[in-house]
């Protein structure tokens, strides 16, 4: 029987790796072409992958939580009608019994180096590509396997081997979920004392070490030590979206000379416009918010200062003005910051812009933004006001020249001209912060753009002039 292996594809622009977030199928399931079989996290977003083959799932070659390179086989599918052996159960008891059986052997084959606990009776069995079967997927090829020195050694008096977190083949014995937990908690499995049968590390072992205080220097296990104050630390692996964001921000901050300008203004008329639009039947099917008005104001202000909608071509030493606005909206998600963009936002009417904005934000918050939706942006808005923050100094999205931060819109005392002269009255006020690339935009251009956006928010009727 010939198995078809589905290899991890490049779902974005030059992505090199991805994390297996969750499998939608299990061995023995029947799949059709284009059925969703797995959810992965790339450096940009969560992506659901369809299967290119029809048949029966023979094996899942990569465990959840593992990060693999593009081109790595992740699932094996048997052709339709083929006889596929039933998968072995992976219950906790079965794993412990398998590990115990292995621990009782005097030695272990050198080709056992899988990432999970090996199953008794399956070591050395035939597998695609000359690899040995393990609990989840396949281990490396037998010609490439290297055996680690065993940490457990026989006692001088010929007694039993000392307990060790490593298995008989020099590998830590722990199921993939336990490995993922250890990775998330920043726990080194080699430092964990296993309590499971046969030296298997359990969830409680990992959690116990993660919450235990470190011993003082100069002390050893079994010796008394002064009480250690509560504390410790938690390490969070930086990967996927967060890793890409960190790299992009460092590259942007140390490549483009940033300048940030601030403008605090009365936006009472903008707030009134938002309330009128909410009550308008034509806008009943879309979400109307201050962000919508700011997005429209940016698109109009770009007409007078196109340099804010441009990019710097380092190799050609040229400024490239973009003829359309692909408006990026920075969105905070549980997996990190993403900036999908609305293509051709400047050509949209207010209702269409509201619909596109609502769809974009909803998809981003659900973590479903596709890599293509985050490519080609020309200007970005970040709404820090939703967190109750007045303003900030935003960093440019790589490749773009301008980014506008919208602060919280709140009631503040404001000086206005009244019938009896100047008066201090409560008004709706916000602060805008514009960062721009000083190679492309000079101070006068940046100031004019920010003043135009402010004017449109202070008095939306001035949009008729643009």
Structure description:
Strands 11, 14, 15, 16, 17, 18, 19 and 20 form an eight-stranded mixed β-sheet that branches. Strands 1-8-6-3 form a four-stranded antiparallel β-sheet, with no helix packed on it. Mean pLDDT is about 80; it is low at about 90-170 and about 215-225. The protein folds into three domains: about 5-80, RNA polymerase II/Efflux pump adaptor protein, barrel-sandwich hybrid domain (OB fold (Dihydrolipoamide Acetyltransferase, E2P)), CATH 2.40.50; about 90-210, no CATH class; about 240-465, Chloramphenicol Acetyltransferase (2-Layer Sandwich). Helix 2 packs parallel to helix 3, helix 6 (about 290-305) packs across helix 7 (about 350-365) and helix 6 packs across helix 8. Strand 12 and strand 13 form a beta hairpin. The protein contains eight helices and 20 strands. The longest helix has 16 residues, at about 350-365. It is α+β, with helices and mostly antiparallel strands and about 475 residues long. Helix content is about 20%, strand content about 25%.
Mass-distribution shape: elongated
Number of domains: 3
Helix/strand/pairing category: alpha+beta
User: How far is the N terminus from the C terminus?
Assistant: 68 Å
- How many β-strand runs? 20
Fraction of residues in β-strands: 15-25%
Enter the CATH topology name of the largest domain: Chloramphenicol Acetyltransferase
Round the mean pLDDT to the nearest integer and report it: 78
Main β-sheet: number of strands, strand sense, barrel status? 8 strands, mixed
Please identify, by name, the CATH architecture of the largest domain: 2-Layer Sandwich
CATH homologous superfamily of the largest domain, by name?
A: Chloramphenicol acetyltransferase-like domain
The value of Rg in angstroms is 29 Å
CATH class of the largest domain: Alpha Beta
Task: Give me the number of helical elements.
Answer: 8
Work out the helicity level.
10-25%
Give the low-confidence spans: 88-170, 213-226
- Report the order of strands and helices: EEEEEEEEHEEHHHEHHEEEEEHEEEEH
């Amino acid at each position: 029987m010939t198995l078809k292996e589905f290899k991890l594809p490049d779902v974005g622009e030059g992505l090199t790796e991805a994390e297996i977030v969750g499998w939608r199928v299990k061995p023995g399931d029947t799949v059709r072409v284009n059925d969703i079989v797995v959810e992965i996290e790339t450096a940009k977003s969560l992506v659901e992958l369809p299967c290119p083959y029809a048949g029966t799932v023979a094996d899942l070659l990569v465990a959840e939580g593992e990060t693999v390179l593009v081109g790595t086989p992740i699932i094996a599918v048997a052709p339709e009608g083929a006889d596929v052996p039933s998968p072995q159960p992976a219950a906790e008891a079965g794993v412990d019994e398998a590990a115990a059986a292995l621990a009782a052997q005097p030695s272990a084959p050198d080709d056992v180096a899988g990432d999970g606990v090996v199953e008794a009776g399956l070591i050395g069995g035939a597998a695609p590509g000359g690899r040995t079967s393990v609990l989840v997927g396949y281990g490396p090829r037998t010609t490439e396997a290297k055996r680690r020195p065993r940490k457990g050694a026989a006692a001088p008096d010929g007694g039993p081997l000392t307990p060790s977190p490593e298995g008989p083949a020099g590998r830590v014995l722990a199921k993939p979920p336990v490995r993922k937990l250890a990775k998330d908690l920043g726990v080194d499995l080699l430092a964990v004392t296993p309590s499971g049968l046969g030296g298997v590390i359990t969830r409680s072992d990992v959690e116990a070490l993660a919450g235990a205080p470190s011993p003082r220097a100069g002390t050893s296990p079994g010796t008394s030590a002064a009480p250690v104050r509560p504390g410790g630390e938690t390490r969070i692996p930086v990967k996927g979206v967060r890793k890409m964001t960190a790299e992009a921000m460092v590259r942007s901050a140390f490549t483009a000379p940033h300048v940030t300008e601030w403008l605090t203004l009365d936006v009472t008329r903008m707030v009134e416009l938002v309330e009128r639009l909410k009550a308008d039947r034509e806008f009943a099917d879309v979400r109307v918010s201050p962000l919508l008005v700011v997005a429209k104001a940016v698109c109009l202000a770009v007409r007078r200062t196109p340099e804010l909608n441009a990019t710097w071509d380092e190799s050609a030493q040229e400024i490239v003005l973009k003829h359309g606005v692909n408006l990026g909206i920075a969105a905070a998600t549980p997996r990190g910051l993403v900036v999908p963009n609305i293509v051709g936002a400047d050509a949209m009417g207010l209702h269409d812009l509201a619909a596109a904005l609502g769809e974009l934000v909803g998809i981003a918050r659900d973590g479903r933004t596709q890599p293509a939706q985050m490519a080609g942006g020309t200007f970005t808005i970040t709404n820090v006001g939703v967190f109750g923050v007045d303003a900030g100094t935003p960093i440019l999205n790589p490749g773009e020249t301008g980014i506008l931060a919208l602060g919280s819109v709140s009631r503040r005392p404001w000086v206005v001209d009244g019938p009896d002269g100047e008066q201090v009255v409560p008004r709706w006020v916000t602060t805008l912060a514009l960062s721009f690339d000083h190679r492309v935009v000079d101070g006068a251009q940046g100031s004019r753009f920010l003043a135009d956006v402010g004017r449109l928010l202070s008095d939306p009727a001035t949009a008729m002039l643009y």
